[in-house]
Design goal:
Layout: H1 2-16, H2 19-26, H3 32-39, H4 41-58, H5 66-84, H6 104-107, H7 113-117, H8 120-149, H9 154-169, H10 172-203, H11 208-234, H12 243-317
Helix pairs in contact: 2-3, 3-10, 4-5, 4-9, 8-9, 8-11, 8-12, 9-11, 10-11, 10-12
Length: 318
C-alpha cells in the first residue's frame, strides 16, 4: 500500500511540470519567460513552509506519518479548484515555414519529434533539462547522507535540505527577468557555472560550510538551467503545439533523474562525498563546453526558428 500510494503521488507530481508550459502558452508574447519564473514562486513557498509543516503533520495523529499523507491529500484537493479557474486552453498555431510536411490538418496538430530533431532549441532543451536535473538530484540525495557520516547535527542536515530548496526556487524572483535581458543561452551557461562552483565546494571537504555551499549552488544552478532549458523548449514549437515535444523532454528528464536518485547511494558508498562532487564536475564540465559550442554554432538558426514560430502565432489567434 505504501508503494502504491507513493506511485500515485509520483504520477500526480509528474503532471506539475506541465503547468509551466501552460503558463507560457497563455502568456502574452514578450512575457513567456517571466511567466515561467512566476510559476516557480510556489516552490519558494514550499521551501520555507515544508520543513515546518512536514514534522508538524507527521505528529498530528496517534499513528506517525498519517497526518503527512493527509496533508498531501488536502493539498492535492486544493489544487482542483485552482485548475478549474483556467478559463481557456491555448489553441494550436500553424507550423513554422518548412517544418510541416504532412498537410494542412497536421499543421494544427502537435509538433512532431521529427520537427523537434531539426530544431536546435529543442535539442538544447533535451540535453539541458535531463542532465541538470540529474546533477541536482544527485547532490540533493547525497547531501543528507554525507552530513550524517560527517557527524554533523540533525539540525544541519535539515538546514542543508531547506537551503537547497531555497536555492532551487528563490532565484525565480530574479532569474526570469535576468533571462529576459541576457537570453536563455547565457542564463544556461550561468546555471551550469554555478553548479560547477558547488562541485568545487563539495570536493574541497565535508565541513559544514563546504556542504552548505555545495547544496545551495546545486539548487541555484538548477534554477537557472531549468528556466533556460524550459525557455528553449517553449521556443521550439508554435503556441499550443508542444504536447509531444514536452512529453519527450519531461519523460527524459524524469527517467534520468530517477537513475541519478537510484545511483546516489551507490555513488556515495563507493566514492564518498568529495569524489561524488568530483563526479558533478565530470558531468557538468563537458556540459558547459557543449553548451558554449553548440549554442554559439546554432544561435542564428535557433533565432530564425524562434521568429518563425512567433510569426505563426497570429494564425491561431485568428
Amino acid at each position: 500500500m505504501l508503494c502504491l500510494a507513493t506511485s500515485l503521488l509520483g504520477a500526480y507530481r509528474s503532471t506539475g511540470g506541465y503547468i509551466r508550459y501552460l503558463a507560457a502558452d497563455l502568456a502574452p508574447d514578450g512575457r513567456k519567460e517571466r511567466s515561467l519564473s512566476i510559476v516557480m514562486y510556489g516552490g519558494l513557498i514550499a521551501a520555507f513552509l515544508g520543513p515546518f509543516a512536514a514534522p508538524a503533520a507527521s505528529r498530528a495523529f496517534a499513528i506517525e506519518f498519517v497526518g503527512s499523507y493527509a496533508l498531501v491529500a488536502l493539498l492535492g484537493l486544493a489544487a482542483v479548484p485552482l485548475a478549474l479557474t483556467v478559463s481557456r486552453e491555448p489553441r494550436a498555431a500553424a507550423s513554422p515555414a518548412g517544418a510541416n510536411v504532412g498537410g494542412e490538418d497536421e499543421a494544427a496538430g502537435p509538433a512532431t519529434l521529427r520537427e523537434g530533431r531539426g530544431n536546435p532549441n529543442f535539442v538544447t532543451a533535451l540535453v539541458l533539462l535531463p542532465l541538470s536535473g540529474a546533477l541536482m538530484t544527485l547532490v540533493m540525495a547525497i547531501g543528507p547522507l554525507a552530513s550524517v557520516h560527517a557527524h554533523h547535527s540533525a539540525e544541519l542536515g535539515a538546514a542543508l535540505i531547506q537551503w537547497h530548496l531555497v536555492g532551487m526556487f528563490a532565484p525565480a524572483l530574479i532569474s526570469g527577468e535576468l533571462m529576459r535581458r541576457i537570453g536563455p543561452w547565457h542564463t544556461s551557461l550561468t546555471g551550469i557555472g554555478i553548479t560547477l562552483l558547488g562541485g568545487v565546494a563539495g570536493a574541497s571537504g565535508d565541513g559544514a560550510a563546504a556542504m552548505m555551499t555545495a547544496m545551495i549552488c546545486a539548487g541555484v544552478g538548477w534554477n537557472f538551467t531549468y528556466l533556460a532549458g524550459t525557455a528553449f523548449l517553449v521556443r521550439s514549437y508554435a503556441t499550443g503545439r508542444g504536447s509531444r515535444l514536452q512529453a519527450v523532454v519531461e519523460g527524459a528528464t524524469g527517467a534520468v533523474s530517477v537513475v541519478a536518485s537510484l545511483l546516489s547511494a551507490t555513488a556515495f558508498d563507493t566514492l564518498g562525498w568529495r569524489m561524488s562532487s568530483v563526479l558533478v564536475l565530470a558531468v557538468g564540465g563537458p556540459l558547459l563546453v557543449w553548451q558554449r559550442r553548440y549554442g554559439r554554432r546554432n544561435a542564428t538558426a535557433a533565432d530564425a526558428l524562434d521568429l518563425s514560430v512567433a510569426s505563426a502565432r497570429p494564425v491561431a489567434e485568428a
